[in-house]
Amino acid sequence: MAGFRCDFKTNQQRLCTLLVCSTFLALAACSFASKAPATAGVGLNPHLPAPNQSIIPTVNIAPAKGWPTGASPLAAAGLTVTAFARDLDHPRWIYVLPNGDVLVAETNSPAKPDAAKSIKGWITGLVMKRAGAGVASANRITLLRDSNGDGVADVRSVLLAGLNSPFGMALVGNSLYVANSDAVLKFPYTSGDLNIASVGIKLVDLPAGSINYHWTKNIIANADGTKLYVTVGSNSNVAENGMEAEENRAAIWELDIKTGAHRTFASGLRNPNGLAWEPETNQLWTVVNER
């Protein structure tokens, strides 16, 4: 399916394609449903159902929706949930600075010209649009500050603009590191800054290209601030774009902050995103979007 091109030459062809894709999405949504309880996939020995082979893949789309007026998520007894900030442009990741300022990566997928040429890529775009991800990337990091401690940000400022699908952030000393979809950049930072006008220094290029299937790159620093660990997701679901497209991907890189030299720290990870240090063992943990 990935080898076919989508050339819409006539209105009739457009209509036919839309009908086919609408049918595809409708069938995909109900092609297979797991009957296992949610608890079956949790714990040290999860019991997962065997892979289900089907011509039409199962796609369950969950459109992003805001809170209804006057409503908020339920919380445990004695706790409340308050909207810290609203009307952000496709926020994807947050990072809390030592002074309490909250950084938000307002970002979305970079252009993927090669992926969009196939029928599969076009259908993927429709699915993403239905889920609320069919918007252009704001390509910025916004700073939110709660200056009076009431749980709501009363200061909002664009800390960094003109980025390239930014995602991960990490502060090491007086340097703020940002993981774009194609590179790790270093910016000077002073506590309390509302805007950084300096041009970032590129520390290292990251695998990207015209497909860049899993484009989100995350970062975390080690305890002494000498290394960054960078997530680089795979360039496909099941290597359907060829193994050449997977070079240096599906991995976590270990990056020397001073030199930019890097090595593969962990591999075989389809799409790692979240990163954290386990406080007792000091081992690196990650959340991987696998099966």
What report would you give on this structure?
The protein has 291 residues and is of the alpha+beta class. The chain has a domain at 90-112 and 135-288: TolB, C-terminal domain (Neuraminidase, 6 Propeller), CATH 2.120.10.30. Helices cover 11% and strands 26% of the residues. It has helices spanning 11-29, 119-130, and strands at 91-96, 102-106, 140-145, 155-160, 169-172, 175-179, 183-188, 201-205, 219-221, 227-232, 251-256, 262-267, 272-277, 284-288. The chain has a four-stranded antiparallel beta sheet, with no helix packed on it. A hairpin with a 5-residue loop joins strand 9 and strand 10. Mean pLDDT is 86; it is low at 1-9.
Could you outline the blueprint of secondary structure elements for this entry?
Layout: H1 11-29, E1 91-96, E2 102-106, H2 119-130, E3 140-145, E4 155-160, E5 169-172, E6 175-179, E7 183-188, E8 201-205, E9 219-221, E10 227-232, E11 251-256, E12 262-267, E13 272-277, E14 284-288
Antiparallel strand pairs: 1-2, 2-3, 3-4, 5-6, 6-7, 7-8, 9-10, 10-11, 11-12, 13-14
In short:
With 291 residues, the protein is α+β, with helices and mostly antiparallel strands.
Across the major sheet, the strand order is 1-2-3-4
Order of helices and strands: HEEHEEEEEEEEEEEE
Helix proportion of residues, in percent?
A: 10-25%
- Structural class determined from secondary elements: alpha+beta
CATH architectural arrangement of the domain at 90-112 and 135-288 = 6 Propeller
Q: Write down the CATH class of the domain at 90-112 and 135-288.
A: Mainly Beta
The average pLDDT score comes to: 86
